């Protein structure tokens, strides 16, 4: 059911928090700022007879939408013309009230059958905790509104990007990937202590760890997927890995076929930038049937290892495997299994440690038109 757009602005009583709504088109929701309390607001009259929404339920939560429903006295339904929904980021609950708010707090919608769908990337972000409360309202002949008391406050958290959203990011990344360059090694830079610990305390193995929160805020792998970060980008003029690194002066190098072969699945994980001209693409290499592979199958777009725009493994007639990487993006490759140091070599690099280029917990530029999509950042 399409809800008609409200024709004039409304000021509404102070409300506790956030909510959901069904089949509300973008035009059906008017965003209003909350100011003051009931006694201070103009244009709204109290009417105790209007029912207070009870037993609020929120479900079908995505990264930028949710459904909301509640129980009401059926005798009063005919008198209800609108719903006021107060939606707030939970993290801002105790923030300075004079601070600029990046999320509108009041949604006003014409009454429609419940449950209702609330959808909008301009006020809902992925992986974000919200609070919500609801009022019922009756529009009077003079244009004022009679309102109920606010409902109880309900909390919920929006979801990660779905595979559909990640496919949109994937398509954007394909446009900027550039031509493919041949490479033969994956490499990982760390401090000497990291490799010493792997040898002594971890059975000579590098162990997967949980991915940090760098990249898109809605990424389903941040804080969840376990893996080991590798690089593979080479310098176009030498064909070799760069000698500088943000992560440490010691580098583990391993032949590409050890990590990437016919028994490995490849997934697209993310596209982001850090307020710079160059962009990062996160890819996941998961041995087929491994826990990491099962995790990615449910959440990430899978790529054809021999035919994609970022990282390929093709077999020559003589059986040799040949590897290529995209030139115009920086690839961050996550390998999801433990890896024995004996499969490669560790040596000190001759270049510098450029800490300023580190992407650890890097925040994505929300204003970049190249790497953002039309859902919460």
Structure in words:
It is a single chain. By secondary structure, this protein is mostly beta strands. The chain is 9% helix and 32% strand. The chain contains 4 helices and 24 strands. The strands form 6 sheets. Strands 1, 2, 5, 6, 8, 9 and 10 form a 7-stranded mixed β-sheet that branches. The chain has a 6-stranded mixed β-sheet with strand order 14-15-22-18-17-19. Strands 3-4-7 form a 3-stranded antiparallel β-sheet, with no helix packed on it. The longest helix has 14 residues, at 163-176. Mean pLDDT is 82; it is low at 1-47 and 93-104.
Largest sheet: 7 strands, mixed
Q: SSE order in H/E notation?
A: EEEEEEEEEEHEEHEEEEHEEHEEEEEE
Look at the helices and sheets and give the structural class. mainly beta
Query: With helices defined by DSSP (H or I, 4 residues minimum), what is the helix count?
Result: 4
Number of strands: 24
Q: What helical percentage do the residues reach? A: under 10%
Global Rg? 26 Å
């Amino acid at each position: 059911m399409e809800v008609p757009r409200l024709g004039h602005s409304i000021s509404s009583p102070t409300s506790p928090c956030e909510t959901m709504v069904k089949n509300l088109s973008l035009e059906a929701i008017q965003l209003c700022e909350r100011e003051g309390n009931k006694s201070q607001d103009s244009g709204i009259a109290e009417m105790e007879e209007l029912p207070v929404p009870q037993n609020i339920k929120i479900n079908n939560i995505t990264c930028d939408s949710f459904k909301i429903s509640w129980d009401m006295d059926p005798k009063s339904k005919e008198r209800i013309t609108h719903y006021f929904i107060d939606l707030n980021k939970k993290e801002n609950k105790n923030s300075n009230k004079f601070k600029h708010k990046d999320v509108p707090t009041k949604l006003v919608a014409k009454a429609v059958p419940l449950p209702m769908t609330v959808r909008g990337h301009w006020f809902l972000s992925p992986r974000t905790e919200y609070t919500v409360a609801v009022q019922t309202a009756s529009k009077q002949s003079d244009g004022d509104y009679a309102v109920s008391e606010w409902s109880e406050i309900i909390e919920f958290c929006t979801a990660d990007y779905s595979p559909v959203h990640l496919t949109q990011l994937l398509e954007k990344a394909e446009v900027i990937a550039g031509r493919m360059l041949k490479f033969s090694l994956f490499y990982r830079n760390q401090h000497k202590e990291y490799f010493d610990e792997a040898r002594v305390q971890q059975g000579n193995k590098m162990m997967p760890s949980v991915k940090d929160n760098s990249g898109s805020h809605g990424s389903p792998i941040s804080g969840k997927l376990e893996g080991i970060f590798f690089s593979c980008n080479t310098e176009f003029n030498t064909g070799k890995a760069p000698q500088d690194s943000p992560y440490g002066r010691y580098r583990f190098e391993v032949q590409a076929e050890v990590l990437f072969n016919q028994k490995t699945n490849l997934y697209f994980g993310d596209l982001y930038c850090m307020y710079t001209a160059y962009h990062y693409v996160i890819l996941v290499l998961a041995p087929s049937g491994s826990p990491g592979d099962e995790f990615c199958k449910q959440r990430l777009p899978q790529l054809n290892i021999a035919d994609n725009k970022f990282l390929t493994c093709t077999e020559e007639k003589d059986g040799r495997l040949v590897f290529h990487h995209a030139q115009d993006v920086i690839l961050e490759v996550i390998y999801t299994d433990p890896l024995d140091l004996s499969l490669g070599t560790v040596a000190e690099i001759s270049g510098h440690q450029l800490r300023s280029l580190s992407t650890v917990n890097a925040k994505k530029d929300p204003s970049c038109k190249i790497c953002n999509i039309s859902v919460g950042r």
